[in-house]
Please model this.
Amino acid sequence: MTFTIFPAVDILKGRAVQLVRGQASSAKVFGSAVEAARRWKRQGAAWLHLVDLDAAFGKGNNASLVSEIIATTGLNVELTGGIRDEPSLQRALATGCARVNIGTAAVKRPDWTDEVVASYGERIAVALDVRGESLATHGWTSASGSMWEVVDRLTAAGCRRFVVTDTEVDGTLSGANVDLLLKVAERTSAQVVASGGVASLDDVYALAQAADRGIEGVIVGSALYLKKFTLKQALAVAAGTMKPPFRPTSPDLEVVADPADVPDTDQPDTPIAAEATDADITDTAEATQVDVPDAIEAATPDPQEPDGVAADSESDGHPSRVVPTRKDEYERSLQVGDDQA
Model:
């Protein structure tokens, strides 16, 4: 049975970001959402999982940008975020996405969701954003409704697919909640797409081994952006051509580029920030001066990806700034861990 890897591109004000447990204040910026999508295409993706965070938080939408990503990459796109009524559903479908995920409306507008599932079939999946045994709604800002009641109702209505996220581990790199995913798969005849917490190729392997039990694929975000493993490695694990034991990676792992990783010829090279010394590292207040919600932290550009960009570039309206490298952030995180132990 085919097992699909869905690289995630979470879009906030046009940028690719990653959140921890869905909290906007935790976001790290990873440059242009369009460039992130192109990067995953170059590395072999067949599908993308796009999240319109602005729509999910009720602060506009990125429909035109999603349409651009779909048109320029030609990839299958699973789109989620803020799809709660007929106008937002039609706007999402009009982007050309292959599939739309409905979340909050599955709890708040059950009759409408049942009708949509019956009418659109494979083009609709239901996002189960799980907190305990309740569902998190409205951009994960509140919890309501029994997960199992929703699963049972929508299975009866003909739902073809559930996208299941354990919101307590999403973005934390603490491992996938395989037990939860298998419980959902055993409860429904629908396929299950896993999301949240994936940290290693062992997580990918464990989920791929459950493909014959209803786990159809996995969405991977932070682990790819932070180079815990590469998309090509994950695809090899999904295809069964790469098996454990897997060699551990490190934050400063050198990745050898191949022709598929060469940027599009019509795209200019983006300057990469130099490695920072302690004196170069700006304080937190300075680092958050970007056109996104307060406390969003600029993530380190990837020196191995030619299309990686720093969060502050000339296009942001702010002067370019040197930012810490992944290795610096990793070593600092270890120090924090020691301090807290």
Q: What stands out?
A: The two ends are 44 Å apart (CA to CA). Confidence is low (pLDDT under 50) at residues 251-341.
